[in-house]
Structure formats: structure tokens, C-alpha cells
Write a structure and sequence with these properties.
This protein has two helices and seven strands; from the N terminus they run βββαββββα. The chain has helices at about 30-35, 80-95; strands at about 1-5, 10-20, 25, 40-45, 50-55, 60-70, 70-80. By secondary structure, the chain is α+β, with helices and mostly antiparallel strands. Strand 4 (about 40-45) and strand 5 (about 50-55) form a beta hairpin.
Length: about 100
């Protein structure tokens, strides 16, 4: 669901490896285990947006901020699972996906 939450200032980037990738439609459950409950966040990579993902211990939810063009904040989301988070964000940003045209 949409939210207004922002990444806390004291969180650090876990690694450059994404927790969610739209390029290969994978969720890295190892990263999920490693950052849950810690003050770290991970990347959500897609062809048409980038996100940052962390676990909010107080709420007990995963949170993501979405940026278009890698620096234009576009919204925040929260969900109980990474799958639910990815599904909602992918549904909302499907129209921003680059289109490829072919000459025939």
C-alpha cells in the first residue's frame, strides 16, 4: 500500500546486489534475511525505476521508496512480504516501462 515513509537517516546500503530485480524477476531471500532487523537497506532495480527497500521493525513491514530516472522521488510503499511489495510497485509503474518499436 502507498505510504509517506522515508528511509531513516541512520540506514546504510547493504550491497550493490539488488534484493529485488525486475531484470530477471527475482527476489534475493538471502539479502532479505541479512537486512531484516538491521539498519540497512537494499536496492530494487528495474529498467524504468530504481527503489530502495528496508524492513521497518516498528511496523513489521517491508518499505520501498521508488525513484524515476534514478533521482526523482515518486512514492513509497509498504507490504508484509517482498513479493507483495514487488507486485504492487510493478503494477503501479508498468506504464513507465520503456517501449521498443521495430520497423517492419
Amino acid at each position: 500500500m502507498k505510504t509517506t515513509l522515508k528511509l531513516p537517516n541512520n540506514f546504510l546500503l547493504f550491497s550493490n546486489e539488488p534484493i529485488i530485480s525486475r531484470f530477471n524477476y527475482k527476489i534475493d531471500y538471502e539479502i532479505e534475511k541479512l537486512i531484516k532487523g538491521r539498519h540497512e537497506y537494499a536496492l530494487y532495480l528495474a529498467p524504468h525505476f530504481v527503489g530502495i527497500v528496508w524492513f521497518d521493525d516498528t511496523l513489521g513491514y517491508w518499505v520501498a521508496e521508488v525513484f524515476l530516472h534514478h533521482n526523482d522521488y515518486h512514492g513509497s510503499y509498504l507490504a508484509e512480504t517482498l513479493v507483495e511489495l514487488a507486485d504492487e510497485i510493478n503494477a503501479d509503474y508498468r506504464d513507465y516501462e520503456p517501449r521498443t518499436f521495430h520497423n517492419h
